[in-house]
Amino acid sequence: MSIEISHVGKRFADFVALDDVSVSIPAGRLTALLGPSGGGKSTLLRIIAGLERADTGRVEIDGVDATALPPQQRNVGFVFQHYAAFKHLSVRRNVAFGLEIRKRPTEEIRRRVDELLALVHLEQFGDRLPTQLSGGQRQRMALARALAVEPTVLLLDEPFGALDAKVRKELRDWLRRLHDEVHVTTVFVTHDQEEALEVADEIVVINEGRVEQIGSPDDLYDRPANEFVMRFLGPVTQLGDQLVRPHDLRLAVDPADGVPGRVSRITRIGFEIRVEVTTADGQSVTVTLTRNEFLALNIETGTDVRLRIAPDTPTTQLSTHAPTLRTALTPTH
């Protein structure tokens, strides 16, 4: 089921949460709303769900005007960051809850719950209480509960934000596989760039209540629309007045063409080597190399080198009004 968001605006007192936002979310796709905290992505998700009312604009779900519809009439499943489980009910009863309040036949409920517990790999934990599950298991239970009523749209608000990095990575992989099985239109909110790039079919970058860019993960990473998108989606460094990915810079020790500089620091981080180079005009530039590339160069702190941008590399002109950037490396999650 497709979702059409047209010219939606939302204010909280003097704070503009959304400013004339228009987005088309394709049917059956997994779409990420990505942006910094406070950028408006969760507000947009809640407006799609009907948990917030837009001040202006229109929301259509599968061609039906849902702008004024209450949440229970939109047929959406919503998963919160902190599970929102009924602690006194078993896993099985949590998953069955939406079906029970809709007064579905007992046998239908049993069959549907069995199917969902198997789908999320929790069939052996159906009689446990939520407090007896791990964080990852509770989040899978929450997803099963949301899917129980066969929603046309599944909405997830930072679903893995409360989990540690290893569990988050496992659940990202699991969510992608689950989506490929059930094919429900899914929209999830995240501020984790790696999560969006790895899981989503399409990414909507939202900042300060406005849409900065919409596209596939490859489009946004390789062809960012502006300086904000390039900075936000992955590591960047600056050479002259150009923003560039550190892995798109080349180092040479012979007197070839390029910007002269001197190696000021070398840091190994797992499989990659980060080499900081100070140019003749004092600019600090970071270059990311593989271990084999680094060994082939035979460089150390103090080595004179030349810097150049690899051919056919997308770059972004640094705004003349932006603060000087030395190096910005996006932290991994």
Low-confidence regions: 321-333
Biggest sheet record = 6 strands, mixed
| Assembly state | single chain
Radius of gyration: 24 Å
Please explain how this structure is put together.
This protein is α+β, with helices and mostly antiparallel strands and 333 residues long. It folds into two domains: 3-227, P-loop containing nucleotide triphosphate hydrolases (Rossmann fold, 3-Layer(aba) Sandwich), CATH 3.40.50; 236-328, Beta Barrel (OB fold (Dihydrolipoamide Acetyltransferase, E2P)), CATH 2.40.50. It has nine helices and 19 strands. It has helices at residues 41-49, 91-101, 106-119, 135-148, 165-182, 193-199, 217-222, 227-232, 291-297, and strands spanning 3-12, 15-25, 30-34, 56-61, 64-65, 76-79, 153-157, 185-190, 202-207, 210-215, 236-239, 242-244, 249-252, 259-269, 272-279, 284-290, 304-309, 316-317, 327-328. α2 (91-101) packs across α3 (106-119) and α3 packs across α4 (135-148). The longest helix is centred in the middle third of the chain and has 18 residues, at 165-182. Residues 321-333 have low confidence and may be disordered.
Give me a quick take on this structure.
GO terms for molecular function: ATP binding. By secondary structure, this protein is α+β, with helices and mostly antiparallel strands. The protein has 9 helices and 19 strands.
